[in-house]
Amino acid sequence: MMSRDRELHVDVDDFALEKPVRLLKTLMYYPLALLLLAVTAQASVLTLKSPRFVVSDSTGNQLRAEPTASPVKLGARESLKITFQVVDKEDEKGVQPHQTFIRFYDESTGEEGIQPVRVTPGGKAKFDLNLSKPPLYLPPTSDKPLKVSLIIGTPNYDPISAQLFDLVLPWSQPAPVHPDEAVFHPRPELQHTFRPEQKVPNKFISLVFSGIAIAPWFVLLGLWSQVAPRATGLFSPSILPFIASLGAFEVLLFTYWVKLRLGDVLLYGGILGVVTVFTGRRALSSIAAKRTQ
Amino acid sequence: MAPTKAPAAPSSQNPVVLLWKAYNQQTPDRLKFIDAFLFFLMLSGIIQFAYCVLVTNYPYNAFLAGFASTVGQFVLAASLRSQVNPQNKDEFKEVSPERAFADFALGSIVLHFFVYNFLG
Predict the structure, then answer these.
(1) Residues of B near A (CB-CB distance < 8 A)?
(2) pTM for this prediction
(3) How far apart are CA B35 and CA A125, in angstroms?
(4) How far is CA A56 from CA A71, A166, A265, in A?
(5) Regarding the domain delimited by A46-168, which CATH topology (the fold level of the hierarchy) does it fall under?
(6) For chain B, which residues make up each domain, given as ranges?
(7) Has the ipTM of the complex gone over 0.90?
(8) Extents of the domains making up chain A
């Protein structure tokens, strides 16, 4: 405390201030110093007087007494009794804390169970764990020991959180799994299966079938050579432009397949279409005139 | 126009052979021209389909484009033939043969455009 007061004074002396302002600053820090003094003066320590624990079986015979560090094993019909008195360390007077808990903690699963302990106004506490009627606050147990600790909290005293001993209880049902538990952990990785790549068939078969597919052209040419009608008017000046524009359309479409893009082909196709309309009308009307003659 | 001959005297031959003979004698050359084209298209379509079924349909879009081209062209050519046939003149009063050919040409060009698009 005295060092703290000295620090405060050093702060003020660092500044070359006028005397009344310096006095005012000292007075400002004074209540803070008083408060700190009060807190450290009243911090007291609690302690336990005559702690005793007893394990007894169903008929009341004592099996174990006196606290020990090694794990305490409790059978299915036995009971554990813990008694102690909470006193102030300095004047040995009984204190009734605001909060007194016994905590059972399973380190492997992280489950815990907490039970408040009744403490009389004189500080005497009694805790009873009867396994023939297992209480609900016990966490799920396995063969791993539970760490039993005592937690005491009350104003004006330092809190206590003291490990007492390890407790081994009989197996219980495991903790129920929440239906949404799987959502909070990473899911198993999805393995997508893709359709296997399609492969090109055997080259020889491809060649054979290419030949077979081209064969109808020869059939067509052969048939046409037998029944070709006379193409007298094909190259007359009224009909030839129409044939030429039809041929140009086919060339345009082939070029589109090879290198053009859609916009280009539509543009050229539009222009060529206009041309074809005019040549077509001329050609077909001349043929119609010749037919009706 | 090609002349049509009188049918030959019926005999006890196979009806298919009779049909073939009648067809050969009575159909004008122009229609036979179109018929040859139709026969070619049918052959081509059957062969493409058989390849797809037997071997692979690997470039599926190519098969569809080729097959659709034969089928579509067949439909267009068949409609042209029926509209141009002089014996059907009463059926198609408002469609002259020239109009039919113009329709055929336009339809073919549009069909080719879509087939080339799909060919890939």
Answers:
(1) 2, 29-30, 32-33, 36-37, 39-40, 43-44, 47-48, 51, 55-56, 58, 96-99, 101-102, 105, 109, 112-113, 116, 119
(2) 0.55
(3) 113
(4) 16, 17, 99
(5) Immunoglobulin-like (2.60.40)
(6) 29-119
(7) no
(8) 46-168, 235-292
